[in-house]
UniProtKB/TrEMBL annotation:
It comes from Flagellimonas hadalis. SMART domains: AAA. Its main location: membrane. GO terms for biological process: iron ion transport. Keywords: ATP-binding, Cell membrane, Ion transport, Iron, Iron transport, Membrane, Nucleotide-binding, Transport. This is ABC transporter ATP-binding protein. GO terms for cellular component: plasma membrane.
């Protein structure tokens, strides 16, 4: 399943932040095609800042980000839009569009300036509608959707963009447990079946442990990265929250309130 020989996205000694303000440093990870990777860490530790930096929405402070063997800064904007798609937490400005129209926007990097869809573009849009169970909602306006439905549409748009790397900021926020699992399983399937590299931030640590191939823990110190089982064995989850409040149970891979 995993392609062990080919790195698609990696960071080395990456420091992120805003102007003079450093948010996190020493971020190292290496991701291959077909890998689902979760980023976890306490509120304000820098998960969104990292994703925004990887997507080039803001500059890194130091270190390197390599995308397909090239510094991410050296990709032209049009090249980048064919390599990396980003789903951020802000709702799209284009919520007045129908589901089909919003997903078709994912094909923008490939269409002419009129935005005409070729048969290949239409196939990608249809495949994305199918994969995220959106056919029945195709003609609905996006502002009429529930949070869970809208989240599926945004991910389907990223799938239609057909980039090897997809980055998502908290794709399961506001969803009930069933729909959190549904979204994460869809992401897992997209990663494994289509060899996409998918990186997302989440507070659902127990679900990430069960579903992700890799996890990056932003902890304000060494930022461990690895297989969920490895990270459990190395007791990294135990150190995530103050023990007097919550404790990690390595047997079940979940957190329990300290009595
Ligand atoms: N535009 C900004 N300018 C300056 N500092 C910012 C900006 N946006 C966020 N920060 C700060 O950067 C730090 C990291 O924020 P970030 O949103 O990346 O954390 P997070 O891990 O995603 O948090 P959460 O889990 O609460 O979403 C915080 O201290 C935050 O206040």
């Amino acid at each position: 399943m995993e392609n062990k020989n080919k790195t698609i996205l990696s960071t080395k000694g990456l420091t992120i932040g805003y102007g003079p303000k450093m948010v996190a440093k020493d971020i190292h990870f290496v991701l291959e095609p077909g890998v689902l990777c979760g980023i976890v860490g306490v509120n304000g530790i820098g998960k969104s800042t990292l994703l925004r930096t990887l997507g080039r929405f803001q500059p890194k402070l130091s270190g390197s980000i390599q995308l397909e063997g090239k510094n991410v800064e050296d990709h032209s904007p049009s090249d980048l839009s064919k390599k990396l798609s980003v789903v951020l937490t802000e709702p799209p400005a284009s919520k007045n569009l129908t589901v089909g129209e919003l997903i078709a926007l994912g094909r923008q990097p490939y269409t002419n300036w009129l935005g005409n869809l070729s048969p290949e573009d239409q196939k990608q849009v249809q495949d994305s509608l199918d994969a995220f169970l959106l056919n029945e909602l195709k003609h609905r306006k996006c502002h009429e959707l529930s949070d869970g439905q809208l989240q599926r549409v945004l991910i389907a748009r990223a799938m239609a963009q057909d980039t090897p790397v997809i980055i998502l900021d908290e794709p399961t926020t506001h969803l009930d447990l069933y729909h959190k699992v549904q979204i994460l399983k869809m992401l897992q399937q997209l990663a494994h079946d289509q060899q996409k590299t998918i990186l997302f931030s989440t507070h659902e640590i127990d679900l990430a442990i069960q579903l992700c191939d890799k996890i990056l823990i932003l902890d304000g110190d060494t930022n461990p990265f690895g297989d969920p089982c490895e990270l459990i064995e190395q007791k990294h989850f135990e150190r995530l929250f103050p023990m007097e409040m919550v404790q990690f149970d390595a047997k079940t891979g979940s957190f329990k309130i300290t009595k």
